Amino acid sequence: MAVIRKIEIRHFRGIASLDWCPSVGINCLIGPGDSCKTTILDAIDLCLSARRNLTLNDSDFHNLNVATPITISITVGALGDNLKNLESYGLYLRGFDPKTGDLHDEPDTGLETVLTLRLTVAADLEPSWTLVSDRAEQQGQSRGLGWTDRASMSPTRLGAYADQNLSWGRASILNKISDETIAASTALADLARNARNAFGQQAEAGLPKALATVQTTAIELGVPVGGAVKAMLDAQSVSFSGGTISLHGEDGVPLKSLGLGSKRLLIAGLQRAAAATTPIVLVDEIEHGLEPHRVIRLIDALGAKEAKPPLQTFLTSHSPVAVRELSANQLYVVRSNGTSHLVHRASDSGDVQGTIRLSPDALLARSVLVCEGATEIGLIRGIDQFRATTGAASLTACGAAIVDGGGENVFKRARAFQLLGYRTAVLHDSDKIPTPDVKAAFEADGSPTFAWQENCSTEEELFLSLSDSAALALLENAVLRRSDKTIDDQIRSACAAKHSLASFRANLTTEARAILGLASKAKHSGWYKSISDMEVVARDIVAPDMQNCAAPLKTTIAGVFKWITDGSR
Amino acid sequence: MAADDIDLLNIQRGLVIAPAGCGKTQLIVNALTRHRGSKPVLVLTHTNAGVAALRIRLEKANVPSSAYRLSTIDGFAIRLVRTFPATSQITEAQLAAERPPYREIRVAACNILKTPRIHDVLAATYTRLFVDEYQDCSSWQHGIVYYLSHVLPTCVLGDQLQAIFGFGDDALADWNKHVGGHFPLVAELKTPWRWINAGAKELGDWVLDARTKLLSGQKIDLRSAPEPVEWIELDGSNNDYSKQLKAGNTKSPVQDGRVLIIADSTQPAKQQRLASQLQGAIVVEAVDLRDLVSFAKSLDIYKPDAVSRVATFAAKLMTGTEPDQLLRRLETIRAGRSRTEVSAVEQAAIDFAATPTYGGVARMLAELNAEVGVRVHRPLVLRACLRALNACDEPGAPTFREAAVRAREQNRMVGRSVPRRGVGSTLLLKGLEAEVCVIVEGHDLNAKNLYVAITRGSVKLVICSRTPILPAI
């Protein structure tokens, strides 16, 4: 059954231009807000839905420029026999090259036979749906899809409002899960007649004056009303259609009054049952109204884990739960390069599955800062918290996410995000450089790396660069969380017992700072190795000292935050 | 195997040999009547007349039109090359030509079909393929069917002894090598239904027996034929023509029976003369309506010879008109020497000469037709001519030549009906059947033409020939 092979959007809302070849199963569109994910879903909906008309307005044109028409071209493959019919669509059948995503005007060996349906809306706002074929155009011919054929590929949309699917109305999914028809039309008509009879002339008692005036006027003017004028139920307003019949629970409560999440889950399940006839589903904000475990249920219901996908699904999501549940070849990152939009499949950027599982929320951000480990994450978070109290824009406000680089993997992870098209930067220790080749590639592609002065770990950098008072505060913080004795022992072992905690407290020499840096990063007993410990230190001690500390620390931190703030523009 | 036992819908790839009059068309009708399913059977044949005849049979049998798609092989080929112009490399201009390059079109269609590029499309559109009159397939037409048979279950029907058509630059496919080599023989029809239904089984059996003999190169002896076969001996003398005329006037032994008269294929003029001289006979025309088109090409109504050309043309279509006499009369009238009243024809001719219009030509022809003693023996050409003339006078109308070509094309699409008494040749009468068939020059027919000729009459056969042993060439 019909599967979307290629989507080409021009001049529609935020999208100037977009070409995308989706896959047969789940296509989950992710990316920061305003990256036009929903616009893509809308485009599919507008182009393929069996509608006779659309209400579009000037704001649907890119940049409000109505001089260039909106075109949405969707190429559909896996055509059923009705759509591949030589006599009805022969002149419009095209060839799709699955390897390159290219379209050829005529079918050929090695190409898939496809049809391209194009929605065009020009300044007059009149939509037209036509099949694309260069040769038909040359022969002066043009046609759209037959109504039945359009209905057969019309997608179902699970939007915020999906109640229409719970009654037997025209566009309801209920009509697609079986061929049965409601044999109640006679009963419904009788019902309407009975209602009119039962109601009778009850209204009349309250309207004697009005009725009398109408009657007198009619008689005066010679309008034939046949005697007395009556007030009865209007025959046209008492009529029932299929949409009047809807689903109810055993207790008679309409299913429309279920919670939003339950309704969406139920309708997704029904869509699955109707997959044979309508295999394309559009889901806005899959997490909408659902608890995490139900998001997972819904994703499963759409066939995300099945080897042979039953449905072609287009999702948008801002939920880390959804992202984590899907595999990298089901995730598509949407981004704009200024002139056009690009949709990039996550799995095309090498092995990013692990990175996605570990930091799904980062995939939803605009900028990704990959930090080497917990210490660096805590440092940036703490400073960010302090900055926020001074009125600066926070990390989240700037659309930035912090990802744990996992020590030696820091550049590999950063490279994955970079290849996915994210604005990426790295903050790492300078005591040793892991995977220098990946670092080189990462920097060669234009992403910045931030580090401390040569051979310095983060702790060493802090103890070297902070002002005396802040460096001492840092030391006292460690003492507070451990004890005088523990810290004193660690200092002594770091300098062959030449100095002690007491001597440093008295005189914080440059040598003392170096020894403290060394002692503080001791293996297994480091002073600031957890995110939360470092976060507190950074917020309360490091950040307030930014004005006073030495250049290496100051410039690196300033660079990181400038990069973060730049990303919000 | 009896015709009733053959189910064309069960044949994956095969040939049904169908001698004339043995229920071939009924076999197709029966199969299509039984056909169920959402996709139609593609039914191809050779001529537009064949398509029209088959369509009439199917409609009479109430076969739903959704069960089949009927086309000529060339019509189907044109559809393919037009649908995929880049692949076929055939341009719209080529297709629109007065004489489209059929051979190139067939080659292009083969090229489209021989790779799998649209095999899925064909399988999605049709459920299977029947091809009628397969003996008339040219090499490239056979190529088209050959490639189609790789996608669609295909049954071809035909009779090699009826292969009397030639296709110019595209030779007939070799029956044994190409046709038999790809389509295994599934059945051969053996019941002479046409004659049985007409109450002349004896004649039918003789015709089938004659077929067997002709096929193996033997001769048939008219003297040992059963009673419905009458041999009229010709001797090559001047008496022959009166014998042939007499034969042509043979009455049908059954009420309202029709008579087909088969004359020399190579001499249309002879056929036309015969028709003009036989009471109630008309000419069975070739689909190209050559006389009409050449008349349309040569007529310039503004030239002084226009009246003469119209009168001469009319004389070709009607018996009893005297163009020379008419022209002399017109001269006399123009000179003011006429002593008799001006006839309606003469008036129409004078009016036309004064104000040349195509309507004037039409009126002249109509008045000629209306004269006492005039009989139209080529009504098809006259009707097509009047239709073309009527389309020509309005502003923006086509030229007479264009209108004539259009009338010809229109005529191609209509099925041919059998007249009460029609004169033609084996080529023209193949596919038509009557109660009586008169063969004017039996000794001039080769085995295939002879077979086609003797299968045209269902009740009676009259054969004029210099020898009773046929074929004589």
Largest sheet of chain A: 7 strands, antiparallel
Strand-residue fraction of chain A? 15-25%
Helicity level of chain B = 40-55%
Query: With helices defined by DSSP (H or I, 4 residues minimum), what is the helix count of chain B?
Result: 22
Report the CATH C-level class of the largest domain in chain A: Alpha Beta
**Structurally, how many domains make up the residues of chain A?**
3
Shape of chain A: elongated
Mean pLDDT over the residues of chain B = 92
Describe the biggest sheet of chain B?
Answer: 6 strands, parallel
Protein model, in words:
The complex is a heterodimer of chains A (569) and B (473). Chain A is an alpha/beta fold. Chain A folds into three domains: 1-155 and 278-348, P-loop containing nucleotide triphosphate hydrolases (Rossmann fold, 3-Layer(aba) Sandwich); 185-244, no CATH class; 365-569, no CATH class. Chain A has 21 helices and 17 strands. Chain A has helices at residues 37-48, 86-89, 134-138, 147-152, 174-177, 185-199, 208-221, 260-273, 292-301, 320-325, 353-358, 374-389, 410-419, 436-444, 458-465, 468-481, 484-494, 501-506, 510-520, 531-542, 551-566; strands at 3-12, 15-20, 26-30, 70-77, 94-96, 103-104, 112-121, 127-131, 156-158, 280-283, 312-316, 331-336, 341-345, 367-371, 400-404, 423-428, 449-451. In chain A, strands 1, 2, 4, 5, 6, 7 and 8 form a seven-stranded antiparallel β-sheet that branches. In chain A, helix 8 (260-273) packs parallel to helix 9, helix 12 crosses helix 20 (531-542) and helix 17 (484-494) packs across helix 19. Chain A is elongated, with a radius of gyration of 33 Å. The mean pLDDT of chain A is 87. Chain B is α/β, with parallel strands linked by helices. Chain B is 45% helix and 14% strand. Chain B contains 22 helices and 16 strands. In chain B, strands 3-2-4-5-1-6 form a six-stranded parallel β-sheet, sandwiched between helices. In chain B, strands 8-15-14-9-13-10 form a six-stranded parallel β-sheet. In chain B, strands 7-16 form a two-stranded antiparallel ribbon. The model of chain B has no long low-confidence stretch (mean pLDDT 92). The A-B interface holds A 79-87, 90-91, 93, 95, 105-109, 111, 113, 135, 138-139 and B 38-39, 69, 79, 82-87, 92, 115-118, 120-126.
